[in-house]
Design goal:
This protein has 402 residues and is α+β, with helices and mostly antiparallel strands. It is 17% helix and 35% strand. The protein has helices at residues 11-26, 48-51, 66-77, 120-123, 263-276, 291-296, 317-321, 351-358, and strands at 81-91, 97-109, 115-119, 128-132, 138-147, 152-157, 180-185, 193-207, 213-220, 232-234, 240-247, 258-262, 282-283, 286-290, 307-312, 327-328, 334-335, 339-343, 346-347, 366-373, 376-383, 385-386, 400-401. The strands form five sheets. It has a six-stranded antiparallel β-barrel with strand order 1-2-3-6-5-4.
Length: 402
């Protein structure tokens, strides 16, 4: 009777695998990719911001000076830019509660009902949110939905009889390098600051707070600093084209390299955040590491390319289909489980390839996952379903969020 070949790991290889996995998580190379095709509800909500044209009180930029255009855009939209302050509660050794400030950020009012678009990392971990829209009045706010994958979130205030200034959505699909942009936010707590610049790059590689790649970000030299995060990046007509999210800086301050999440991502995400509180995407439910990276770190593996599965999320599509990660063999030694080499014929080398492919699929679709198992290739059908955010492993963050 033939026996299955089980590829076992030596103690040295196990140590190398653990070390390499840690290095890869910390030093992951930022990749740009196409994150389009989010699953959409048939009854997709529409915010007022999506349907609004450019503010009527902004003159045709070709008929006024650049200075006048800056003034008009600011006057028209500054009151629609939220100053968001977050706090959390902490108990002392005697059980007394104390409110501690966590930080501040910015946001854009996107409809007359009080929905505000901001970054996920601005409200992450907060237990109390307040919003100022100028003047001395503040509003308590609540979190409506959040999406770590795109670093976006929606919060809501109750404006009552107050009339809100809505920041209208523009279009980020046809931007040009060199195009003028304006950023309004609250850097270092300085209320509603205007900076201007140009689009200095497109399709830049950034990642969400959970290390997921975000579709080609907008790079700008408009000064962006801590506190600008979540605020609007506007075109010269006053339309929202991006959500300011990250800076690439060793010092923590602006050095002319800021990044914004394209508004067309927000157009896809916001309706689901308002309706469901999260974005419902198809997932496999796996944690893996690139075979090529492990080989570079000295780990001996039976094939040269693919995604080695370290662990499988319980009750996930992967676990239901029988995919397996590292496991302990009958003799007590750690052995390899599956190595994904392709999905529906598309080559898979790392987790980014997985995200990129699955974002083209819908919940309920079945994909054919090709894995290397026990010395041979096996096709495993996996029916995609939704995983909640707390079922997804988080990795270290490669860029500074503010």
């Amino acid at each position: 009777m033939s026996q299955k070949a089980v590829y076992q790991l030596s103690a040295r290889q196990i140590l190398l695998l653990a070390f390499a996995s840690a290095i890869i998580a910390v030093g992951a190379v930022l990749l740009v990719n196409n994150l389009g095709g989010f699953w959409k509800s048939n009854n997709e909500l529409k915010t007022q911001a999506e349907e609004n044209a450019a503010p009527a009180n902004i003159s045709d930029p070709s008929t006024v000076s650049d200075e006048q255009n800056n003034i008009e855009v600011y006057k028209s939209l500054a009151s629609g830019v939220a100053f968001i302050t977050s706090t959390s509660y902490q108990q002392d050794m005697f059980g007394n509660g104390q409110e501690n400030p966590r930080g501040s950020g910015s946001g854009s009012v996107i409809d007359a009902n009080g929905h505000i678009l901001t970054n996920y990392h601005v409200i992450e971990g907060s237990e109390n949110l307040t919003v100022s829209l100028g003047g001395n009045k503040t509003y308590p706010a609540k979190i409506i939905g959040s999406d770590p994958d795109t670093d976006l979130a929606v919060i809501k205030i109750e404006p009552g009889q107050d009339k809100l200034t809505v920041v209208p959505f523009g279009d980020s699909d046809n931007l040009q390098i060199g195009q003028k942009v304006l950023a309004i936010g609250n850097p270092f707590g300085l209320d509603r600051t205007l900076t201007t610049g140009v689009i200095s790059g497109l399709q830049r590689p950034i990642r969400g707070t959970n290390n997921r790649p975000i579709e080609g970000a907008i790079q700008t030299d408009a000064s962006i600093n801590p506190g600008n995060s979540g605020g609007p990046l506007l075109d010269k007509f006053g339309r929202l084209i991006g959500i300011n999210s990250q800076i690439l800086s060793r010092s923590g301050g602006s050095v002319g390299v800021g990044f914004a999440v394209p508004v067309n991502i927000a157009k896809r995400v916001v309706p689901q955040l308002i309706q469901f509180g999260e974005v419902r995407r198809p997932r496999l439910g796996i944690d893996g590491v690139s075979v090529e990276r492990l080989i570079e770190q000295g780990v001996e593996l039976p094939i040269e390319k693919g995604l080695l599965l370290r662990a499988i999320v319980d009750n996930s599509p992967a676990s239901e289909a029988g995919l397996r990660g590292l496991y302990r063999g009958a003799n007590g030694r750690v052995a390899l489980g599956d190595i994904i080499t392709a999905i529906d014929g598309q080559t898979i080398n790392d987790l980014d390839d997985i995200y990129r492919y699955l974002d083209k699929k819908q919940i309920g679709d079945t994909v054919q996952v090709e894995v290397f198992r026990d010395g041979k290739s096996v096709n495993v059908p996996v029916k995609l379903s939704v995983l909640s955010q707390n079922q997804t492993p988080l990795n270290n963050r490669p860029m500074k969020k503010f």
